[in-house]
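User: Hey, quick favor. My workstation is busy. Could you predict this chain's structure for me?
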Amino acid sequence: MDTSGYESLSFNNTRAINVAGPVSERSFPSHRHAYGEIIVVGSGDKNIFRADDKLYSLTPGDIILIWPMETHEIVDANRIDSIIVQYSNTLADSLFDFKRIINRYHDLHILCIKAHPVLVNKLKSIIEKLKDEWQNDNPTREMRCAMYLLEFMSVLDEHHEELDADISNDGGKTISDSTLNNIISVMDYIKNNLTADDLSQTAMAERAGINKDYFSRAFKEVTGQNYIKWLNAVRVEKAVSLFPEESLTLTEIAMLSGFKSIPSFNRVFAEYKNISPSQYRKAYIRTPEKYRT
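Assistant: No problem, here it is.
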């Protein structure tokens, strides 16, 4: 399976929360993206999803957790009655507890209503309230939806003892909260300093106060990716966020995103988006003017 693919339409960078509308098509190809998703499975006898390379046949009311940067696929499912909530990685990155929960439950993808009826119904109720709020014209709907999302994560975490058996122990999460905090601090530093002279793994391990080998293992545990892949993904998403700036050329965007050359920018961007930067900008960023290269 190609795990480098992204959705062709990126999450709306101006919003922290999105509720995807009902879609009649029953499938969506394998993809991944920088934002997370919560899916409440809709009605019907056939609802097949793939999450993190595992295939699941689910029943109505089950909940699927897709963490940021995880490969997933809708194989054959009722997408009209399903509820799909998407949340920006920017929102997740802004709160330590949110990052801690992602780290703790990174191996948890399915919450079965038959196995956890009380918890799942409680979480499902929160998502339904979030959806109802999203459909309102209230000017503070996004903030209210974010509050429901945080309530969802809080309730999930409150039931950690109940869910421990559902989380894989293979290569389980072993880092301390202090190490997690150091890794997150490094991630925040990188996102705010993509043009820094030295963002090497060695330099970031030193910034985190741990040796390089342990940093490498801990970083992959926190993010689900090795350091270079994560760094390149952050640079690509930074470039995408700059595309609407009409005054910037692609060369300027590449430099501001931390790429050292246009060939490197083009190669890495194509690896992650399956399309060149110029093609992506023309196809997915609406603007009245043509872009300069």
